[in-house]
Design brief:
By secondary structure, the chain is an alpha+beta fold. It folds into three domains: 253 residues, Thrombin, subunit H (Beta Barrel), CATH 2.40.10.120; 108 residues, PDZ domain (Pdz3 Domain), CATH 2.30.42; 94 residues, Pdz3 Domain (Roll), CATH 2.30.42. Helix content is 26%, strand content 31%. It has 13 helices and 28 strands. The protein has a six-stranded antiparallel β-barrel with strand order 1-3-4-7-6-5. A six-stranded antiparallel beta barrel has the order 9-10-11-14-13-12. The chain is globular and about 85 Å long. The termini are far apart. The N terminus is likely disordered.
């Protein structure tokens, strides 16, 4: 009989025990609730909604639609195309992350015309009317309208843009406005599990606030269909971020901005990403001062040690032993950019960059970050493993201009040039063309672009003379191009057809 009563007795005691703390913690829950309400009231006056009118040409619209279709196929199981090799100039030969982050603006359908493409978010930086947001919110905009929390609307102008980090600064006239600049925190000190608050205008719903946590730190190499960012190291949060939150602040429980919301994960719930505010602090003053960011440039294409081992089909430990490296940290140089700072200083493929100015290099992204934080024109000391021995190389850094220059070196009359590899020549069914120069990219608004030379064209002749390799192309251009005159270039297009192109050489042009 005692045993039969024993079970109900325990259940009753548990019920009583559970009921007592429920009343005891109600004040604590109320305190939490009041704190969250206060946080929203504290930060919301600094948050703005940004409406952008963008004119999209038909080719760009179709490119965007293709990108989104590809990402939809990837999530439905269709094999993706291979990515290019990674390096200091951008890109990556990494595995696909899952899920794929998508931008918070969608490519609209329909004919090209100035129209409100989307709304984004931003936040007040100072009393002069500077507002921080994402670059993709304002990129290619023809008109920007900022809406404050009190409903006041002002037109804004773009002050500066940094596509490599997806940060932009815009400005409104502060006259007659009561602006509340944000307080910024330290994103280097945040930890996984901390509370996080995301604010902005998701789906155009002005003044939205969502609460969650920091769910991960240092997220790298996330693919985005319309942005190939050089700098990531994102904060991951489960605070709800939706389309339209782009550019809005991610805050800590003190109401300090710790990040700028940038993207969401497609097909996932409560996975959003934000740019660390410490990166923003370095970028924004430059954008306000000069409209752009100046960064150091080394001129190498690099991979992580484990990636190099995988490419060589070797175990990581065996690869490290063969190269006589102390560990898997560092960045292995795959290629050196022609005429770049590294080439001029004597850096070579297969070198492993171990330290920069005495600071360890953890990975390729760490090398990019360290070099980018150093001003162009500075001399850096590289500690490099070469053929199993340590050596020091002094490099005078250049200035990073664009991905094409970083990868292929300076453009010639607007043409970026590279050697056609044997594999690429076989893929186009012309193995005999291996070693010839081809055009991987064209500089915008350049003489080559005006001549309608296109990416992937293979150069066959310059001024009626055969050009069998990259060196001969450069030599023939230097010999025959004259300022104000027309240069004849014979190219083979990807389909195999040859066509003559006429490049008008600009007045004052000189061969490098």
């Amino acid at each position: 009989m005692k045993r039969l009563l024993h079970g109900p007795m325990i259940a009753a005691l548990i019920a009583v025990g559970a009921a007592a703390p429920a009343f005891a913690i109600s004040p604590l829950l109320k305190e939490f609730e009041d704190a969250y309400v206060h946080l929203g009231e504290l930060v919301l006056p600094s948050v703005v909604e940004i409406s952008a009118e963008v004119a999209v040409d038909p080719e760009e619209r179709e490119r965007m639609n293709d990108l989104f279709r590809q990402f939809q196929q990837r999530n439905e199981g269709t094999p993706p195309k291979e990515d290019g090799e990674g390096g200091e100039g951008g890109g990556g030969d990494n595995e696909q992350p899952a899920p794929t982050p998508l931008p918070e603006q969608r490519a609209p359908d329909g004919p090209p015309a100035p129209a409100p493409s989307a709304t984004g978010s931003g936040f007040v930086f100072d009393l002069d009317g500077h507002i921080i947001t994402n670059n993709h919110v304002v990129q290619n905009s023809t008109k920007l309208t900022v809406k404050l929390q009190d409903g006041t609307e002002r037109e804004a102008t773009v002050v500066g843009q940094d596509p490599d980090s997806d940060i932009a600064v815009i400005k409104i006239d502060p006259a007659g406005l009561t602006l509340t600049p944000v307080s910024t925190g330290d994103s280097d000190t945040i930890k996984v599990g901390q509370f996080a608050i995301a604010l902005g205008s998701p789906r155009g719903l002005t003044g939205s606030v969502s609460f969650g946590h920091i769910s991960a730190l240092g997220r790298e190499e996330l693919e985005m269909p319309d942005r190939n960012l050089r700098f990531q190291h994102f904060i991951q949060t489960d605070a709800a971020i939706n389309l339209g939150n782009s550019g809005g602040p991610l805050c800590n429980i003190d109401g300090q901005v710790i990040g700028v919301n940038i993207a969401i994960a497609f097909g996932a719930n409560s996975i959003g990403f934000a740019i660390p505010v410490n990166m923003v602090k370095k970028i924004v003053p430059q954008l306000i001062a000069s409209g752009r960011v100046s960064r150091g440039w080394l001129g190498v294409q690099i991979v992580n040690i484990d990636e190099a081992a995988d490419a060589a089909e070797q175990e990581l430990s065996d690869y490290i032993e063969a190269y006589k490296l102390p560990d898997a940290q560092g960045a292995l140089v795959r290629l050196v950019t022609p005429q770049g700072p590294a080439e001029k200083a004597g850096l070579k493929p297969e070198d492993v960059v171990h330290k920069i100015n005495g600071v360890r290099v953890a990975s390729k992204t760490d090398l990019i970050k360290q070099i980018s934080d150093i001003a162009p024109g500075a001399t850096v000391d590289l500690e490099v493993y070469r053929e199993g021995s340590l050596t020091n190389i002094q490099v005078l850094l250049g200035e990073f201009k664009d991905r094409e220059t970083a990868t292929f070196g300076p453009a010639v009359l607007g043409m970026f040039l590279d050697d056609l590899s044997p594999r690429a020549a076989e893929q186009i069914a012309h193995p005999d063309l291996a070693g010839r120069a081809f055009v991987p990219a064209i500089a915008k608004d350049s003489p080559a672009a005006a001549a309608k030379i296109a990416p992937n064209d293979i150069i066959m002749k310059i001024a009626h003379k055969d050009a069998p390799n990259l060196e001969s192309v450069k030599a023939l251009i230097k010999e025959n191009a004259r300022p104000g005159k027309t240069l004849l270039v014979r190219v083979m297009q990807p389909g195999g057809e040859e066509e003559s192109k006429f490049i008008k050489v600009p007045d004052g042009w000189t061969a490098e």
